[in-house]
From TrEMBL:
Similarity section: In the C-terminal section; belongs to the MurCDEF family.
InterPro entries hit by this protein: ATP-grasp, ATP-grasp_RimK-type, Cya_phycin_syn, Cyanophycin_syn_N, Mur-like_cat_sf, Mur_ligase_C, Mur_ligase_C_dom_sf, Mur_ligase_cen
Subunit structure: Homodimer.
Lineage: Bacteria, Bacillati, Cyanobacteriota, Cyanophyceae, Nostocales
Keyword Nucleotide-binding annotated: yes
Protein name, as recorded: Cyanophycin synthetase
Organism annotation: Nostoc edaphicum CCNP1411
Gene field: cphA
Length: 901
């Protein structure tokens, strides 16, 4: 077997709208391509020996053991790889269950789809599953040591990529509330929400957290002084920088017992408590110096350690932290008890589990000695043997929830203290013998105020009720159900995506909001280009959704991005599907137009239930998507007599209709006429039907988002098919005696769309400079030739600079084949170089003719046209009899375009 490609999907995708995290592995079974599992000697037995837990997989039989039944009866290895990859992740503690396996159009090559929780682990599991199955095929077994290593590696991947317990709690609460989130590229930042409504977090610090509060909390001595001045109970202590000052500091705090800790420390590092001798004090000083230059010496207060969590000025959880310890059973040594305690599945490394494994350090041995023990001692049954002086969970401690026990005065004090320090989220360390009594009565003290406090002890206490502290954070960041989202409008289709996306963004600008949009030409925010290039995938969408100035996102969504990575968002408010036509077939294992329709339908399906899928009623494959989506449906049509739209409107639906020369919104028994098509520049005086359809789709998408008819009209009348607004989309240039039209048509449907305009050119010759991307099928090029023969009087066939693996000249020959099949007497010539072909077409143009250029490089084509002199870009404006020139060219209006059409 051979893995040809592995892709990682991170959003709604071709395989699943609901399961966003998927690995797609393209697998060549090679010699096993026609061999089911029951024909491979010993395979079933070897698989069961290696992974007996596969008994829990139901598969198509729908019962426990169903999958193994399939293996025994005979199934293809690709299917088995899917289940093995899922099971390996399960054994590593990652609960996944979704998988799909499909044979491609190439026999023996399969697409194996598996769910993942961690990307690296998912990809590893796919590769490991192939290794395991190949080993069983070759040797009848998979060595146990290799399987154990695979599982350990998967665990390591998961631990290394873990968000941490606090961030994980916040993310889960966000998901529960429907708040989208994403990891940013630096400093472990998490973004909650999109665009202008986003909030950012780092651990448990938010973008509202005061830097002054954080700095103060990190300076423990300054915190203590501020609180003491405010009358809060704090330990008596001082700060020293030299060992020579230690003895005097001990006297100042009142003598032993004392605590020594670093001034700048966290997670209990470098702290030594209950120091009773000079030797212990010296050792404690050296331990603290490993963490901080300045050292705090404090009086040691007897009592239990409590963490009080305050969020947005309110106490939301209280936990008593119990230092790491073991309980004697009268038989085992302390060393054996520690080993047994660490076997608890709730204990892990660092912060990757509810509890942390117990590890001993210098203070542990001192503490044991003080209790009269060594590691080889056998404590009596029921005796508690403490192994750490501090109660931090990161050193193996445990937590007991005390939220319901805190005294009202202590609650008030904690909330007051956090406001004094100036933090929105803080954790107070309080030492007291009884948290249910006021601190002043029991000589309790506030030891520290922590910025970015951990949530683990509250969300998963060892004893007591888990507290939803992340919910309090969400309530603070998004109060009163404040929206975390911005409107997302996603546009897809075979043709017209870029024009419709740009037009929709332009219409939305009439509302005064900042619009971010992505197209095949680049990513834009407002009037400015952020990044040039083909930006129609999820990464470009993230640029828009991560920008804190963006109020509306309009995203062109191409097939390639959906296939490679899935959508770049959880769900849209509006999903627009313009059309589905034959293009890119045979690429990415999308071999039929039905498969292409299923791929495009992802945009219609990934819409909020209260959102709208805007569908082309004139395209049966698009119209059928209404059955797949849970969103509301809105249709657009060029046919005012459409039966589908009529029934839809009768049921209370909304539609955009081209009727009596008008673009209109129809709902119920009323019709809102937006504007006559001939007054909309994009439609070229109403003579470009496909542009009218694009304008209908954009108008309808805006209307269902409560953009007013007046704003839609203003957007339509000020948007032009120009180089500045729609480069490569019906850009018409006046070259004096003739005109040139540049359009990025590259498939049959777009050829037909351009042809619907070109056929209206009734004066002079119609010259076409044509070609197509080299990765299309042979029959696609033949079709382009047939269409060109029906559109143009003279044809120049060229090829792209990048032939995409096709032999130079072969695409042109196939186009010529199509031309001659339809019109044997057609006038044509082949000039493979695009620059030479464009220049030849412009050179030979007679008076009043139209040269139509369908280029690989729009920029190059426009540059060649402008080199011809005073090339005037034309578009149809409010007056249908006037040509309007691109103001950036600084050229005066020219002749009347209607006389040419």
């Amino acid at each position: 077997m051979r893995i040809l490609k592995i892709q990682t999907l991170r959003g709604p995708n071709y395989w699943s709208i609901r399961r966003h995290k998927l690995i797609v592995m393209r697998l060549d079974l090679e010699t096993l391509g026609e061999t089911p599992s029951n024909e491979i000697p010993g395979f079933y037995e070897g698989l069961v020996e290696a992974l007996p837990s596969l008994e829990g997989h139901y598969c198509s039989p729908g019962c426990r053991g169903g999958f193994l039944m399939r293996v025994k009866e005979g199934t293809m290895i690709g299917h088995i790889v899917e289940h093995v990859a899922l099971e390996l992740q399960e054994l590593a503690g990652m609960h996944v269950g979704f998988g799909r396996t499909r044979e491609t159009a190439t026999p023996g090559i399969y697409q194996v789809v598996i769910e993942y929780l961690n990307e690296e682990a998912g990809r590893y599991a796919g590769r490991a599953a192939v290794r395991l199955c190949q080993s069983i095929v070759d040797r009848g077994r998979y060595p146990k040591a290799e399987l154990e290593q695979d599982i350990q590696d998967l665990k390591d991947f998961t631990r290394d990529a873990s968000l941490g317990p606090s961030t994980e709690a916040i993310v889960k609460e966000a998901e529960k509330r429907g708040i989208p989130w994403m990891s940013l590229e630096a400093r472990f930042l998490i973004q909650l929400g999109y665009g202008v409504n986003q909030k950012r977090m780092q651990a448990t610090m938010t973008d509202n957290t005061s830097i002054l509060g954080v700095e103060l909390a990190c300076d423990k001595e300054a915190t203590k002084r501020i609180l003491a001045a405010a009358g809060a109970p704090v330990p008596r202590g001082t700060v020293i920088n030299f060992l020579d000052d230690l003895e005097q500091a001990i006297e100042y705090v009142g003598g032993y017992p004392i605590v020594i800790k670093p001034l700048d420390g966290n997670h209990g590092r470098g702290i030594t408590i209950d120091i009773r001798t000079w030797e212990e004090a010296e050792a404690g000083y050296e331990a603290a110096r490993q963490v901080s230059r300045s050292i705090i010496v404090e009086r040691y207060y007897v009592g239990r350690d409590h963490r009080v969590l305050v969020v947005n000025g309110k106490v939301v959880a209280v936990a008593e932290r119990v230092p790491a310890h073991v309980i004697g059973n009268g038989r085992s040594t302390i060393s054996e008890l520690i080993e047994e305690t660490n076997l608890d599945p709730n204990r892990g490394e660092g912060h990757d589990n509810v509890l942390t494994k117990i590890e001993l350090d210098r203070t542990s041995y001192q503490l044991l000695e003080r209790q009269g023990y060594t590691l080889n001692s056998v404590p009596p049954k029921g005796t508690i043997c403490y192994l750490r002086a501090t109660a931090n969970l990161s050193t193996g401690g445990s937590a007991v929830d005390r939220t319901d026990e805190i005294h009202p005065e202590n609650l008030w004090l904690a909330q007051r203290v956090v406001k004094i320090i100036g933090l929105d989220i803080a954790g107070l360390d309080i030492v007291t013998t009884d948290i249910s009594r006021p601190l002043r009565e029991v000589d309790g003290v506030i030891v520290e105020v922590n910025a970015a406090p951990g949530f683990r002890m509250h969300v998963a206490p060892s004893v007591g009720i888990p507290r939803n502290v992340a919910g309090a954070v969400m309530d603070m960041l998004f109060p009163n159900e404040q929206s975390s989202q911005i409107p997302i409008l996603s546009v897809t289709g075979t043709n017209g995506k870029t024009t419709t996306t740009r037009l929709l963004a332009h219409i939305y600008k009439q509302t005064g909001k900042v619009v971010g949009y992505t197209t095949t030409d680049g990513t834009y925010i407002g009037d400015y280009l952020v990044e040039a290039g083909d930006n129609t995938g999820p990464q470009s969408a993230h640029v828009i959704l991560q920008d804190p100035t963006v109020e509306v996102a309009v995203l062109e969504t191409a097939r390639g991005g959906i296939l490679r990575s899935g959508l770049g968002f959880e769900a849209a408010n509006v999903g627009v599907v313009l059309n589905v036509a034959s293009d890119h077939l045979g690429i990415g294992d999308i071999d039929t137009i039905e498969q292409l329709a299923n791929l495009k339908s992802v945009v219609a399906e990934a819409v909020f239930p209260d959102g709208y899928a805007v569908l082309n009623a004139d395209d049966r494959r698009v119209a059928a998507m209404s059955e797949k989506t849970k969103a509301n449906i809105a249709y657009f049509t060029m046919n005012p007599d459409s039966e589908l739209v009529r029934k839809h409107i009768q049921k209370g639906g909304v539609a955009a209709v081209y009727e009596n020369g008008y673009l209109s919104i129809v709902k119920g028994d009323w019709t809102h006429r937006i504007e006559r098509a001939e007054n909309i520049p994009l439609t070229m005086g109403g003579r470009a039907p496909f542009m009218i359809a694009n304008a209908l789709a954009a108008s309808l998408a805006a209307f269902v988002q409560n953009v007013t008819i007046e704003q839609i009209r203003a957007g339509l009348k000020t948007f032009r098919a120009s180089v500045s607004q729609t480069p490569g989309r019906m850009n018409l240039f006046n070259l004096g005696n003739y005109h040139a039209l540049v359009d990025y048509a590259h498939n049959a449907a777009s050829y037909e769309a351009v042809g619907s305009f070109v056929r209206n050119w009734t004066t002079g010759q119609r010259i076409g400079v044509i070609g197509g991307p080299g990765d299309r099928r042979d029959e696609d090029f033949v079709t382009l030739g047939k269409l060109a023969a029906q559109i143009f009087d003279y044809i120049i066939i060229k090829e792209d600079d990048d032939t995409r693996g096709r032999a130079r000249g072969s695409a042109a020959q196939l186009i010529i084949q199509g031309i001659t099949e339809v019109k044997p007497d057609s006038r044509y010539e082949s000039i493979l170089d695009e620059t030479q072909a464009i220049n030849k077409g412009l050179d030979m143009a007679p008076d009043n003719s139209l040269v139509v250029i369908l280029p690989e490089s729009v920029t190059r084509a426009i540059k060649l046209i402008k080199l011809r002199g005073l090339a005037k870009e034309e578009t149809h404006q409010q007056n249908p009899g006037t040509t309007v020139i691109d103001s950036q060219n600084g050229i005066t209006p020219s002749s009347v375009v209607n006389t040419l059409l």
